Amino acid sequence: MWQGLSLWVGGPMYYIKNGLGPRFRWLAVIFSVLGVLTVFGTGNATQVNTISTAVDSALLNYSLITPESVGTFNLILGIVIAVIVALVLLGGIRRIGQVTEKLVPFMALLYILLALGVIFLHIEHVPAVFRSIFEGAFSPSAVTGGAVGTLFLSMKNGVSRGIFSNEAGLGTGSIAHAAADTDNAVSQGYFGIFEVFTDTIVICTMTALVILCSGVSVPYGAAAGAELTISGFTATYGNWVSIFTAVALCCFAFSTIIGWGLYGTRCIEFLFGSRVNRPFMLIYSAVAVLGATVDLGLLWSIADTFNGLMSIPNLIALFLLGGTVAKLVKENHGKN
Questions:
Q1: Nearest 5°: CA angle at 253, between 251 and 256?
Q2: Which of 133, 174, 126, 168 is CA-nearest to residue 311?
Q3: Whole-angstrom distance, CA of residue 266 vs CA of residue 326
Q4: Distance separating alpha carbons of residues 171 and 177, to the nearest angstrom
Q5: Could you report the per-residue pLDDT of 319-330, keeping only the tens digit for each?
Q6: pTM for this entry
């Protein structure tokens, strides 16, 4: 018997409809349509590609597979991931929560410990790394180059990667927080703000330091994913660590796949009702096979496009509801 999802639902489509009124329902519909399209690339295909790349790198390091067999192996891996994702999603919000609450602490602790080890072992390189980052960002040549011909390209890549890493501005995080069992929406919102700090400031900065401090080659202009991060770890610890790094990256990616599966289900449920939830979950799970076998550059382009489009209706709603949010925060502080 299919348990279904939680009774508590929310997210941008609901605060647009309920907060701005019926005349803005079209904006909620646009968000939901874009949300359904976005989850296949951002939430599924690119994440599965990360898993397959991480597993491939680890197995190739130990010669457990050959370069010629990677394609066949990835196809099998994609099918296995699709089956597991379907089983988790069809279990409802409780099973989603049970899976992610076990994966997230483990993967975060393992990844942070490994990253701190790389940074500590190359501590003498840290000042030079930060200096190169700031010089690359604020040097006269960087400013001039951005102003002359690459300003919009730089903004596109920077904003798209920023959104991709923490979802700030997309509104998707509020879909998950709406299912929380709490009487204080403002406090729950603070948790959402803290997530942005954890994802971008902590995890992403550590990843950058692992890559740069270890001295691995960063291919300019080339699409690089999990294999670049794994190279940073293996350059410091040796090939043995590729297994642990692959496990951590797989946990990161898998929890993201599950979370975005919930987001997409909420969006399509808003459009067509709960009767379409189960078919959508099955289709969403099947996309994992595509993610394991398609070129990474194409997947990133698709994900970036829909990410940007999805943020537009949400940012419009946030601007129009700014006064309401400020009022609720003020009332919450008054109670405390």
A1: 105
A2: 168
A3: 26
A4: 10
A5: 898 888 888 778
A6: 0.76
